[in-house]
Amino acid sequence: YYQSQRKDLYKAAVDRLLAEGKAFRDYDPPELMQADRAAAEAAKQPFLNIRRSLDLTDADRARLDAEGKPHVVRFLIPRDQKVAIDDAVRGHVEWDGALMPDPVIMRSNGTFLYNFATVVDDAQMEITHVIRAEEHLTNTAVQALLHQALGNTPPVFAHIPFITSPGSTKKLSKRDVDKLRNSPQLKKMFDRADEVFPQLGLGDSKTLNPVMVEYYERMGYLPSGILNALSRLGWSLDDKTEIMSLDTVIQNFSLDRIVKAPAGLDPEKLQSYQQHWMNQLPLEDKVAGCLPFLQQAGLVADADDALRGLVGKVIAAIGDRLRVFSDILDYKEFFVSDDKLAYDEKAFTQRLRDAAEAPGLLRLLSEKLATVEPFDAPTLDAMVHQFVEANGIKIAQIVHAVRISTTGRGVGVGLFDALAILGRDRCQARIARALSLLPAQS
RNA sequence: GGCCCGUUCUUCCAGUGGUUCAGGAAACUGGCCCCUCAAGCCGGUAACGCGGGUUCAAAUCCCGCACGGGUCACCA
Asked: Residue A122 CB closer than 7 angstroms to strand B?
């Protein structure tokens, strides 16, 4: 709906109010009003507009109109009256009409103000509940009075708390991005944006950040995770339930369990809900969710069955380390060619360069790889343990060297899973390449 | 500044006069497990803003104070 389409409705309501003496045409120019306001402030008095135009006669108004003098229409606040609503969240809230300036309801150009249009609309559309953020609570005084003047049955109002910035009590606002960037709670999310979005060609945390809904979508968060986190902000089902699906929320939601105090977004907790719902997802859904990220990053080509199979195996190995779909980008080692594998310098040095016996053991193990049959994780696991025993070494002495040489990293999925996914040839090729990068030994 | 709203662990919630020396989750932390990182399991730390009332009994009701927030447009 557009206000511009409903002008006739608003006009009729204004005319009625005017005819009934519940509104008046105000010919005072805005500058005069501002001066009045400034004077009131200077005198430390609460501001109330001066109703000069109320003394105008019909003849005065006709003359002013003939002169082309513009006017607005103001709603005449009953200053001898109190207004009250029974808010579904906050309970009984009262205001004193004596303290409320007369609000403009129609501009001098003939258009209408939100605070008025919404009242006309709500009545005409038979709205039963107005549920909105707490920052609108003050507006409700005027709206309630307007409903009363128009003879409407007012809707039930429910003013729910807004969401605050993490670690703050202030309304979460896009205008504060720069401050938020440095907040300890949000810093990780900004940093992650800088890691992930450039790979996807989406800019960085300056273009997409955690105060924007799009951030979560582009980062590969699940709607169910976001929804769960948001649902638990300012509302609860009971004293225990944390994990909730949309259906659960729909079935159980009630206004009377909404908390009154504003709540801060907690990225850690969001992450925890997200993790839960990601773990619930069947493997094929995870594959479908991750593939677009790999493609957008240029790591894989169009999806065929073979690629889906590979991605499925990788995701299965990643397991619960996959929190959001874009996390798949942390496992590039499975998608790059052997000669393009990058090494984590620190791990490479610690596990290969500085580990005196590592190269020798690696060479031996690589030979063993040739005979592993089938080349799967359990068999590899057994073989390595045998190898460890046969050589009288500790498992740590070989495992890290294998990991860094085949995956390029010191951390990652289970080593035997990684080896099985890569397959015999690629494992041997990668080990050979890593060894070739070490200084020649006698 | 006026008006309005709010105030339970670090955070998000539970609690509507006694079954609560306040319960759950996240975070943090100790341990187990372990090829790394996670996850998982077991355990731990940690709160009723302050002051007055009312009552046999108050986190829960009342009053005041303090602090925090929202809002004060011919914006929506």
From this structure: no
Distance, Å, A236 CA → B14 C1': 8
Contact between the CB of A261 and strand B at under 7 Å: yes
Neighbours of A55 (CB within 10 A): 7
A368 phi/psi in degrees, rounded to 5: -60, -35
Q: Could you give the 3-state DSSP secondary structure of residue A368? A: helix
Decide: CB of A110 under 7 A of nucleic strand B. Answer: no
Compute the CA torsion angle A422, A423, A429, A433 (nearest 10 deg): 30
Measured between alpha carbons, how far is A223 from A28 in angstroms, rounded to an integer?
A: 52
Distance of alpha carbon A287 from alpha carbon A306, whole angstroms: 12
- Residues A148, A256: Cα–Cα separation, whole Å: 25
**Whole-number Å distance between alpha carbons of A44 and A38:** 10
Q: What is the pLDDT of residue A442?
A: 40
Question: Any idea which nucleotide's C1' is nearest the CA of A273?
Answer: B26
A413 contacts A321 by C-beta, under 8 angstroms: yes
Q: Which nucleotide is nearest to A71 (CA to C1')?
A: B74
Phi, psi of A112 (to 5 degrees): -115, 160
Q: ipTM higher than 0.90? A: yes
The model's pLDDT over A144-182, given as tens digits with 9 standing for 90+, comes to 999 999 999 999 999 999 999 888 888 888 888 888 888
Using the structure block, give the residue that is written with the tokens 């200053």.
A79
> Distance (Å) from CA A110 to C1' B35?
76
* Residue-wise pLDDT tens digits, A334-371: 999 999 999 999 889 888 888 888 888 999 999 999 99
For A201-260, what is each residue's pLDDT tens digit?
999 999 999 988 999 999 999 999 999 999 999 999 999 999 999 999 999 999 999 999
Q: What is the pTM of this model?
A: 0.89
CA of A356, C1' of B7: distance in angstroms:
62
Residue A371, classed as helix, strand or coil, is coil
Q: Residue A422, SS3? A: helix
A260 Cβ contacts chain B strand, under 7 Å: yes
Q: Rounded mean pLDDT of A32-40?
A: 91
A91: β partners: A87
Give the three-state DSSP class for A203.
coil
Which residue gives the smallest C-alpha to C1' distance to B36?
A411
